[in-house]
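Sanity check

After download, print the first record. It should look like this:
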Amino acid sequence: MSGDPATTTRPTVAAMPGSVWRARTVVRALVVRDLRGRYVGSALGLVWSVVNPLAQLAIFTFVFSTVLSVRFEPSDVPFVLYLAAALFPWLAFQESVLRSATCLVDNSVLVKRVVFPIEVLPVQIAISALVHQLIALALLLVLMVILGVPPQASVLALPPLLVVQLLLTVGIGWAVAALHVYFRDTAQVLGVVFPMWFYLTPIIYPYRLVPEALRPVLALNPLTALVEAYRDVLLHGVVPLGVRELWLAIVSVAVFAAGAAIFTRARGELSDLV
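Expected structure tokens:
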């Protein structure tokens, strides 16, 4: 396999972050191309990136706040803010993983014929999704001011939280990208898994409503810690530094390393299978 153009240089697991960093110019170009390509010819351009999350936010707010009267604590913070603080990161995570699953097959020309650092493809997808998330979070901050819940200094803790989210997302992205090349049902399986994962994450309901017996199970879900951390930073004025956040950091680093290992192990065969 050493003669395959796409696999001439195969970084080890430990070298994967360095390989991505050296290809940062490529990553930046791919992100710009992706963001421009999605909205080419569109009158509203990048504005469309927040239409979907805002539409989902409006629907969930109507159903769960108005119809079902679900309430978070403290009650002086509007339901829409609690929902948005968790929903926007979830949507970015979901988009990244689902798109990463097919990124190697969708870019088979690059994988097969060009000396190209294919490990950057899931990274580029994750960063593009984070750009959309940041736009949505900026709108959330404006909405907070309008609704009388001004942002506090804790929002300065957003960058580390975004880094942790990126590690988790890229790790899963590398894993599913490689697996989909071998098992073309991977994307379909993810399409089934994500709706269940969504409802097993306290996004549209408060964690306090989860029965005591089930809370340890939900606590194992790294997305539970992630969305709760976003709520703390954005809405509660708290920089979370507890056991929950330590668990999130450990899982994110472990998933990142595991994803790198899976991708590295499969890389020698990817150009033949896409």
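If your output differs, re-run the checksum step. Summary of this record's structure: Residues 5-273 form one domain.
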